[in-house]
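Work Package 3 (structural annotation) set out to generate three-dimensional models for the target panel prioritized at the project kickoff. During this period the team completed the workflow that converts sequence records into discrete structure tokens, so that structures can be stored uniformly alongside our sequence database. As a representative example, we reproduce one entry of 249 residues exactly as it appears in the project archive.
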Amino acid sequence: MMFLKVIKKIANLEKRNEARKNGINDKELQKIKDKEEQDAKETSSSHLVRNAEGMKKVDLTLDIRSLISGKIDEKKKKVLWRLTVVGVISVLLISVKEFRIAAFLLALIFLASVSKLIQEPIPFVVGLDLCLFVTTVVGYVIHPLVGFVVGGTSSIIGSFLRQTEGVENVVVPVLGYLWSSIAVWVLHTHASLWQVGVVTTLLYTFHNVIIFGYLRHFSIHSITFMATSIPFNLFLISRFGEKLIALLA
């Protein structure tokens, strides 16, 4: 921009010199000078406008970066929490005809969410929460979509309770519940709860191990997760699956 201004000034000087050579009087030269000053003001104004637009673009870019940075402040957490609760209640009330069942599902969401806190005192990753269990049983009895909503929402709320950092720690498990719900949808009319539970447990466990292994490399956490998730969830299905079905019936 400075280079262009210098070029313009040189051109104007040449014009004035040429005007004097051609016999143009001082009054006409003053008009030329006034026009040059007006052009300079317009150029300066245009430059300021472009600077302001540039600052707006920078501010917008910074805002977008802050939104996708993965860092969520307390205010945003409260908003996300309220939206999650309102969304869950709305979906459950639409999907479930009986209010008693909807209230029971909300209680399951609460219990499964709190069960995620068991990970806090343990130094290695374990699969000892109730999210997959409720995803499988609710999906088998009511509808796979409802099961996914219950399990996925429980996992998200549990992540908020644990103050989990990193988007992958929230998204990857929820994707696992999605694949499990699809498996329930495919199998529930042709297989028993135990058979469906075996498939969903293996599918969810290996999904998490493979994805987290790809993102962070395989480690002792992969082994501890498999060693706890598979037996724990199969135990829940075999011991409490039918009892939960009776309560949801």
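The mean pLDDT is 77.
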